Amino acid sequence: MKVKSMIMSLLMLVAIPLNSSAQQNLWMGDGIRSVEIDDTQRVTLRLYAPDAEGVALQGDFLAERVAMSRGEDGVWSYTTEPLPSEMYYYSFVVDGIGEIHDPESVYMVRDVAKQMNYFIVGGGCGDLYKPQAVPHGTVSRVWATMGDMERRMVVYTPAGYETSKRRYPVLYLLHGMGGDEEAWLATGRAAEIMDNLIASGHAEEMIVVMTNGCTRHVAAPGYSEEGMWRPYMSGSMDGSFETMFEDIVAWTDKVYRTKAKADSRAIAGLSMGGFHAMQISKTYPKMFDYVGLFSAAIFRGKEGVMLYDNLEQRLQKQFAEGVSLYWIGIGCDDFLYDENVKYRALLDTLHLPYTYHESEGGHTWRNWRCYLTDFAQLIFK
Amino acid sequence: MKVKSMIMSLLMLVAIPLNSSAQQNLWMGDGIRSVEIDDTQRVTLRLYAPDAEGVALQGDFLAERVAMSRGEDGVWSYTTEPLPSEMYYYSFVVDGIGEIHDPESVYMVRDVAKQMNYFIVGGGCGDLYKPQAVPHGTVSRVWATMGDMERRMVVYTPAGYETSKRRYPVLYLLHGMGGDEEAWLATGRAAEIMDNLIASGHAEEMIVVMTNGCTRHVAAPGYSEEGMWRPYMSGSMDGSFETMFEDIVAWTDKVYRTKAKADSRAIAGLSMGGFHAMQISKTYPKMFDYVGLFSAAIFRGKEGVMLYDNLEQRLQKQFAEGVSLYWIGIGCDDFLYDENVKYRALLDTLHLPYTYHESEGGHTWRNWRCYLTDFAQLIFK
Description:
Two copies of one chain form a homodimer.
Chain A: H1 2-13, H2 21-28, E1 35-37, E2 43-48, E3 55-59, E4 66-67, E5 69-70, E6 75-79, E7 86-94, E8 98-100, E9 108-111, E10 114-121, E11 138-146, E12 149-157, E13 170-174, H3 183-186, H4 190-199, E14 207-210, H5 245-255, E15 265-270, H6 272-283, E16 290-294, H7 311-321, E17 325-331, H8 337-349, E18 355-359, H9 365-376
Parallel strand pairs in A: 13-14, 13-15, 15-16, 16-17, 17-18
Antiparallel strand pairs in A: 1-2, 2-6, 3-4, 3-7, 5-6, 7-8, 7-10, 9-10, 11-12, 12-14
Helix pairs in contact in A: 4-9
């Protein structure tokens, strides 16, 4: 502490130039630039590990781990081919130690039980996932009352909400198994996507409510009296979450300036959240005019749950009440692809209209960010 | 991706028991329990690294790095002596690779340019830093308008704010050099401290506004169009932040249900933020009745700034307008200790009354969390 204090003291006495390596050394070890994206969208990743015998790189932009090359300065590096615009995750694998985070980057997102370093390549959809020079909405972590329980939610209100007197439509956005109310903000980039789509006029101004769809917990790990538990593949497909939704909507309509009617409400979710969106929208057939099923786990509900019975009649009732958009998106490699085929066949048989979007890839955030981007531009118009 | 999809598919077909090691293995590598706190407040830390030749542990609970012991299962471990209740940081040092994060924990906070794993030992002040079974306030990331600029702030509103019609006092809470609007929430545990103090009746219900005191940036790294820049020891001690404060308070009073008068406003900050709190409170002598200087960098302002001139007269004017509490806290080992002695001597000479708290230790978050805890209990009474 003493050395640090002395250095801090010195630092405070002198002007500190931007990116001075001296002050970076204080906080960042060796101060190398660990992620560098060039004009051709090639990315160079670096790790300082002079004593390592071998360092590999892994990331979702690579088919498999690749060896990094050691420079004379002890810095290992690897440069990719030009990468399509996207948000990417990476980690380093050192000798036999296993996967390690980038010690030079503070940019991490948690997906279920893993913290991941990331970078974003611009020039395409990645630009939507970055904060741009546009007005930014507010992101609030709130505790909503549901019966005698308090549960945590994340609420996005669009730029200008605080000072306008207007009422806004609401999109309820649901995570998948293992996720929680933080998931759409972190790996989902929901706040950046909404800011950018609204600013460019591609989406209407809207409130986005991100719920917690695992009823065994009241909040994401670390945010409640349950303490610092280890995240796992938790979820609720037994009707317990769906029956909370009336309270969630009532609380939202009470606390926020919402347009509290079906034509100003949308519900969408990914995987288990797609299942929830499907179940909730038909359980409350007068509540939502817009429904989005992203890689939905359509037929995974627990057996014997009354809420899940009579699927056909309930869907017919929901559509009879009026549905403006019933949007289904899935990747052609998704492990849930076949059951989405089956579900569309059911809707076809019942003559219930839907919009279908099939993408490449599988059960990934890369797809879910795109689906949100597409869906958000179609609702409340 | 295919293997992951298949495993996810399997997982969704079976009931997933809580803490099943199978599903943890999917997301967490080897699934060991990396932090274990026993009833005697001894903490065992573990890292799975079967091929490492040596692993050390470092943390702010240790005077120096300690060697960890390798078990036959390839898990390295170390058990501490009983630790006083507190929030602690730790990392592992593997062979010559350097410092690595705990791959088994998702619990990290960023301090300036470093992500740090942490744990909290309860049984004392640490209990204040954990979420407890009490009503929780809302934490919002907002963009406040200051002149023609938008800058990001974090706002805590106490539990019940959304549904009450009441007006609340406001504490403006300022970070130190290198920090930003996220600092008091992360390492500062401000939301947990306020929730717990308010719930136990030790603090009044209040709004807490956490600003960004570095005028070269509009937001913490990664949250604005400035992109994913590398945090550094940035700060503003040239008057540029202080002169924004009128707009910050006006915006807060406009957007939130505040009690918009001096006896319901407090300002406090740590290090550079203590300097800011001192300067701002005397620049706007009718604005704040409560002032808190935590390890304040009293005499570090840039020379030649008119705002910083005539310290004595301006302090006299501020106190003449009425100050209910002028609270100064510092650790006896702090590198700013001497200038705080000098500042108190000045206040004594001027017969300006203050409350002084001297603690052990230095320029640390451990002290600043305590100072916030003390200060928050004294204001708005």
